[in-house]
Each structure stands twice: as structure tokens, then as C-alpha cells.
Amino acid sequence: MADMMWAGRFSKQVDAGVNAFNSSIAFDGRMYRHDIQGSIAHATMLGECGIIPQEDSAKIIEGLKEILSDIDSGALELDPNAEDIHMFVEAELTKRLGDVGKRLHTARSRNDQVAVDLRLYLRDEIAEIMAMVKKLAAALIEMAAQHTETIMPGYTHLQRAQPITFAHHLMAYVWMLLRDLDRLRDAGERMNVCPLGCGALAGTTYHTDRQRTSDLLGFSAPMPNSLDGVSDRDYCVELCCAMSLLMTHLSRFSEEIILWCSWEFKFVELDDAFATGSSIMPQKKNPDVTELIRGKTGRVNGDLVTLLTMMKGLPLAYNKDMQEDKEAIFDAIDNVKLCVKTFTPMLTTMRVLKDNMRNAAARGFINATDCADYLVKKGMPFRDAYKITGTLVAQCIEKGLTLETLPMADYKAMTELFDEDVYQAISLETCVRERKSEGGPSPEEVTKQIALAKAQLEKFA
Ligand code: ARG
């Protein structure tokens, strides 16, 4: 068995069980590109600053590039017995270059190395997630534009409340997604600072140029405190939090789609390609995709709690507990990507059953507020109008009627302020059309917010 890197201090090989327990390559191997990218920047700086000979720096960079392309092509496989991706790449470099390879780790520790790798890796993942969320938001905006006149009931307490349109409902989610994009971008910007050169915790006695490595890696600045640079994982927590909120939004939307697919609602029909059947009940068509999204939201929230709990008692600086950050944040990322990727085509292929929405809106007295407002506009105080309308609704329920079909005589019996024009005033079309306060469901207002949302979406480059 080859000597461990720290063999000088130890008189025994590490126990095989401990080695396996300690090893993180099974999950941090996915950062190999970013590890090599960080090492190339470090080696460049070491050469430029005269900390290692220029020709060694050049050989190291060449060697690292070859390792990268060999891993990419599959010619070089990650060694599952390596402690982590950092050790693996360095050992491979030394295998290929001999003593020259051994110079790479000058003025660096795995503590700043892992911190830089993870920031680089997450930066790329954030860009990917944002692109996916943008696609989803754009698809929703497009759907909304087609449904500004599609009347549906709006709910509170899951009871029919007031009339809205399907476009209005969809746009509510678009605004949530726009804030999610904002949070993701924000998390990305805040994490984009460079811990490389912080060393194990206390910097180094070599005359390094941290600004140079930061620039080479596209960070906005080197981190100002070497202890902080290797100690915190707030950027993982923050990103996970943004993802938890994104999942929460997808989960609420999923829950609604699950309801809408039921025979009790039947507002939408999923495309057969995005639903599943039952092994026993031949009539079933189940919205599994949305249920899984709802389920996976719990999992991402769990990852967030894992990260917060892992960090809360750790003394500065690095502690091995922090190796646990990766499985949590990677799990969250993988699942968020999977969910957004599946959700978008499921939505765009879904059939919107307008008539069922309209029929549901026509029952449940969702125009009762408008009936009261009719009286208010004729001079009656709102509380009195509210009471009268409540009495009328009770009469309708007793007679099996709706406010639209209740005879004029019943209206007049309550107050002479009622006239034939009440029927027009409480028609669903009027109720929706007249709700043109800013942000309201009137087609006119929703069209305005569609334009606004489009403009905001375009700003996320
Ligand atoms: N695999 C380790 C991690 O993910 C790398 C840093 C190890 N540093 C150390 N001093 N043991 O956290």
C-alpha cells in the first residue's frame, strides 16, 4: 500500500475502515473540474510570484490540463480509495511529474482549496438552475397571455372567494419565481469571493498574490480574513435556503395541480406523457410528477436543516464536520434541477379545461362582494350592503338559486336600491373586468403585469 501523504508523522497505515469512513471522493469527485481550475490558478500565481520556478509552474499547469482531459474522456478513473478529489488530483500529478508535482501544494491547504472548489462549483450550478427557472417563468408567462379572459374561482381557505382569471393565477407564480431568481443571483454574487490563499487558517509566509488568483478564477475579490475564508459555509446555507423557497413555490403549485386534476375540480388534464396509471385501478390517471415535487420539497428542506445544524456549534476554523456540506447541497441541487426540468414540460402540455373553471366560478357566490359593492356605489354604507347580500345568499341557498337567477322581486324586497342593472353588475365577466385596481385580475391589468414580468425576466442574463 502506498504511503499516505502524511506518512512522516505516522508510524502506521490508517485503518481501512477509517479510510473509507473519512473518504469523500465518492461525492466530491464531481468537483474535479473546479479543483483543477483552482489548482491551475494557484500554480500560475506561484510561478509568477517566484515561489516555485516558472518552468515547474508551466509543467504543473500542463499536467493538470492533461489530467482534466483524461478524466473528461474516461481515460483516467477516480480512485475510490483516495481520501478526496483534492488528494487524488495531486497524487495523480505527482505520479505523472514526480518532484515537480510535489510543489503544487506550496502556500495552500486543502482547507482553502475545498472552499474555493465548492464556490466555483456552486457558481456554475446556480447559473444552470437560474436558466431552468427562467425557462419555467417564460413558459408560464406565455400560458398566461393566452388566458387573460379565462375566468376561474379564486379561493381563500380553499373556499370559492372571488372571481379571477387563470392568467392572474399563473402570474402569481411568475412573480414568486422572479423573486427566486433574484435570491439565486444574490446568493451567487455573495459567494463569488475568493478564499484561495487563506491556507489552513492563518495565511502563509510566502509572498503570494491573492488578488491574482481571485482575478484568474473570476471572483470579485479575495476574502479579507483567512480564518473566515476557510471556516464558513454560509454560502451553502444561503443557496440551499433560496432553493428551499423555490421548491416551496413549486410544491404549492404542484398541490394545486393535484387538486385541479381531481374529478372534484377537473380544471386541467395532464398530458398522458406526464401522468401515470395504477397497477390495479384501470380508470386511474395520477399526477405523480407533482406529488414527487411536493415530496422532494421536504427533502430539500431537510438538506437546509442538515447544513444549519452541521455549522451551528463548530469552533473556528475548519472542522471535518464540514465535509458533510457537500452531500446536502449536492442533493438539494440535483433534486431542484430534476424538479424544474420535469415540471416545465408537464405544465406546457397540460390541457386547460376552461368550461369547468367557468362553471365552478358560476357557483359558490363568488360575486357576492360585487353585489354588496353595487349597493355601496348607490350610496349604502358597506357594512349594511354586506348584511343584505348575506341575507340574499342565504335565500338563494334555500331556493337552490344563484345571485344571477334570483328574481328581481327578492332583490327589491331587501332594498329599493336594487334595479335590473344588478344582473349586469354581478355577471362574472363584469366582476373580473372591473377588478382593475393595480395588480388585480382584469384582463387589462394582467396584460400590464405580463409586460412588466417579461421585462424583469429579461434582466436575468
Ligand atoms: N474532503 C475535505 C472536505 O470536504 C477537504 C478538506 C480537508 N481538510 C482537512 N484538513 N482534513 O472538507
Name the descriptors.
19 helices, two-stranded antiparallel sheet, Ribonucleotide Reductase Protein R1, domain 1, Fumarase C, Chain A, domain 2, 461 residues, two-stranded antiparallel ribbon, Fumarase C, Chain B, domain 1, binds arginine, 4% strand
The quaternary organization reads as single chain
Provide the residue-averaged pLDDT.
96
The succession of helices and strands, N to C, reads: HHHHHHEEHHHHEHHEHHHHHHH
Principal-axis shape equals elongated
Bound molecules: arginine
| CATH fold type of the largest domain | Fumarase C, Chain A, domain 2
Compute the separation of the termini in Å: 51 Å
User: Strand-residue fraction?
Assistant: under 5%
The percent range for helix content is 55-70%
Strand order of the largest sheet: 1-2
Brief write-up:
By secondary structure, the protein is mainly alpha-helical. It has helices at 16-22, 25-28, 32-48, 54-73, 85-97, 110-145, 166-191, 210-216, 226-231, 234-261, 288-311, 325-348, 354-362, 368-377, 382-399, 408-414, 421-425, 428-433, 443-458, and strands at 151-156, 159-165, 268-269, 351-352. The protein contains 19 helices and four strands.
Provide an overview of this structure.
This protein has 461 residues and is mainly α. It has 3 domains: 22-110, Fumarase C, Chain B, domain 1 (Orthogonal Bundle), CATH 1.10.275; 120-190 and 209-359, Fumarase C, Chain A, domain 2, CATH 1.20.200; 362-458, Ribonucleotide Reductase Protein R1, domain 1 (Orthogonal Bundle). Helices cover 61% and strands 4% of the residues. It contains 19 helices and 4 strands. The chain has helices at residues 16-22, 25-28, 32-48, 54-73, 85-97, 110-145, 166-191, 210-216, 226-231, 234-261, 288-311, 325-348, 354-362, 368-377, 382-399, 408-414, 421-425, 428-433, 443-458; strands at 151-156, 159-165, 268-269, 351-352. The strands form 2 sheets. The protein has a two-stranded antiparallel sheet. The protein has a two-stranded antiparallel sheet with strand order 3-4. The protein is elongated and about 100 Å long. The structure holds arginine. Residues 24, 28, 84, 110-111, 114, 318, 320, 322-323 line the site of arginine (ARG).
